[in-house]
Write a structure and sequence with these properties.
Shape: elongated
CATH topology of the domain at 56-137: Four Helix Bundle (Hemerythrin (Met), subunit A)
Oligomer: single chain
Structural class: mainly alpha
CATH class of the domain at 56-137: Mainly Alpha
Order of helices and strands: HHHHH
CATH architecture of the domain at 56-137: Up-down Bundle
Strand content: under 5%
Bound molecules: zinc ion
Number of helices: 5
Largest sheet: none
CATH superfamily of the domain at 56-137: DksA, coiled-coil domain
Helix content: 55-70%
Distance between the termini: 103 Å
Radius of gyration: 30 Å
């Protein structure tokens, strides 16, 4: 009887071991990611590149199609950002007792509002660019009428000045500011 019991005990021990093994690997609990909206410099956005075929027409169908797509996607992205902030700010109206917490919450919100403001301005600029496309003015400098150039537009799809006029414009602005 004693031997039987110990056999039983062995079996129980073995079973325990089997059960114990897979339990060893516990999934590491992920920390909840902070809800903070990271301010990204909208002006430095990287756009999809575009490779023109040999002897492709400047601002021809294919290029125009590319820019319309990029501009619309960008606009959608900006609108989504704005919507997200509104939701985030509504959720985040916590009344902090600590004046330091309150101050940092206020400056966070001020920063977000500034970002949103900049995004709204960008959306306006994108809309203006889209209407320039519609009226066949896109891709040509507003000042001198020269081609702005495909590479410049790929980097800055909302550019309205060629690089020469833009440079002169910036020099003039700097002089005015002095
Ligand atoms: Zn120009």
């Amino acid at each position: 009887m004693a031997q039987k019991k110990s056999l039983m005990q062995k079996a129980i021990d073995a079973a325990k071991k089997v059960v114990a093994k897979p339990a060893a690997k516990k999934p590491t609990a992920k920390k909840p990611t902070a809800k903070k909206v990271v301010a990204k410099p909208a002006g430095l956005k990287k756009f999809n590149s575009y490779t023109a075929k040999n002897n492709e027409k400047y601002m021809g169908r294919s290029q125009i199609k590319h820019f319309i797509k990029i501009l619309n996607e960008w606009k959608l992205e900006l609108s989504n950002d704005i919507d997200r902030t509104v939701i985030h700010m509504q959720e985040d109206v916590t009344a902090y007792a600590d004046p330091n917490d309150r101050a940092s919450q206020e400056s966070d919100m001020a920063l977000e509002l500034r970002n949103r403001d900049r995004e709204r301005k960008l959306i306006k600029k994108i809309n203006l660019t889209l209407s320039n496309i519609e009226s066949d003015e896109y891709g040509y400098c507003k000042l001198c009428g020269e081609e702005i150039g495909l590479n410049r537009l790929i980097a800055r799809p909302t550019a309205t000045l060629c690089i020469d006029c833009k440079t002169l414009d910036e020099i003039r602005e700097k002089q005015m500011a002095k």
